[in-house]
Each structure stands twice: as C-alpha cells, then as structure tokens.
TrEMBL record:
The keyword Transport does not apply. Gene3D superfamilies: Nucleoside Triphosphate Pyrophosphohydrolase. Its cofactor is Mg(2+). It comes from the Bacteria. Belongs to the Nudix hydrolase family. This is 8-oxo-dGTP diphosphatase. Pfam families: NUDIX_4. Its EC number is 3.6.1.55. Residues 2-130 form the Nudix hydrolase domain. The gene is mutT. CDD domains: NUDIX_MutT_NudA_like.
C-alpha cells in the first residue's frame, strides 16, 4: 500500500491569467504543465507549505489564499491528495526559480495545455467559474 502524498497546490491569478509551470522531464508527470506547489512536509500546515513552495518554485510571496478544491487521485505509481487554493494576493515577479518554464495563461487558453491526469476536475471547475 503506497502512502498518499499530501500536496499543496496554488492557482495563482493575476487579472484573467493563471500561472502555470512546466514540470521538468525527469519528475513524476514530467513535461506536463502544473499549478505550482509541492509536498506538505511534516509539521507544516497546508498554508505554510503553499507559501514555502510558491517562494521556492516561482519566487512569489503569498499574502492570502482561499480553499478551492481537494482531490484524491491514484496514478499507477503514486497516490496524491491535492489541496488546492486560489491565490490572488501575492507580491513579487514570477519566474521559474528551479529552471522550469512558466507562463501566465489566459483562462480561455487553459484547455490548450497538457496537465497531469489528476487535474481534470480542477480545470472543469475553473472553466466553469469562467462562464
Ligand atoms: N504542484 C502540483 N503537483 C501536481 C499537480 N497535479 C498533480 O497530479 N500533481 C502531482 C505531481 C506530483 O506527484 C505531486 C507534487 O509533488 P512534487 O514532486 O512536485 O513535490 P515537490 O514540489 O515537493 O518536489 P520535490 O521537493 O519532491 O522535488 O503532485 C499540480 O497541478 N501541481
Ligand atoms: Mg512541486
């Protein structure tokens, strides 16, 4: 039985655009576009993990976030629990702090990007919000 990995995920919004980052090829789900985030470490709250990961991965300081969705998904090789938050209060200029490609993508273009399979319900809800 694999241990389910708790992941803090941020949907970072600026106007009508959302920040995506491309996972490095060698990683789990490599080559796919993701919402920045990462594993909640022992002793951390999700909010702490989200703030740490967004600083480490895209160089942003977050000042507030709102719960958006929780999602359990079983990949053949990994079980994840995605704890997804909307972030629209932040400072700094986003950059790929780990050498990854990033993009601010208009909502209307999100469906053109390839995401990990777990993300389907996130996209459905986000695009639904846009109606
Ligand atoms: N950040 C993020 N992870 C996602 C998304 N969708 C999805 O299935 N995942 C999965 C991929 C990974 O198995 C896991 C995230 O873990 P990770 O490997 O990026 O964790 P991390 O940033 O802490 O990286 P590391 O320190 O272990 O290298 O969640 C998403 O939209 N964003
Ligand atoms: Mg990560």
């Amino acid at each position: 039985m694999l241990k389910r990995i708790h992941v803090a995920v941020g949907i970072i919004q600026s106007g009508d655009t959302i920040l995506l980052a491309k996972r490095h090829g060698h990683l789990h789900q490599g080559g796919k576009w993701e919402f920045p985030g990462g594993k909640v470490e022992p002793g951390e709250t999700v909010a702490m993990a989200l703030a740490r990961e967004l600083k480490e991965e895209v160089g942003l300081e977050i000042h507030g976030c709102t719960p958006f969705m929780e999602l359990a998904y079983d990949y053949p090789d990994k079980q994840v629990f995605l704890d997804i938050h909307l972030v629209n209060d932040f400072s700094g200029d986003a950059h790929g702090a780990e050498g990854q490609e990033i993009a601010w993508v208009p909502m209307s273009e999100l469906s053109q990007y390839s995401f990990p399979d777990a993300n389907r319900p996130i996209l459905d809800k986000l695009l639904g919000l846009n109606c």
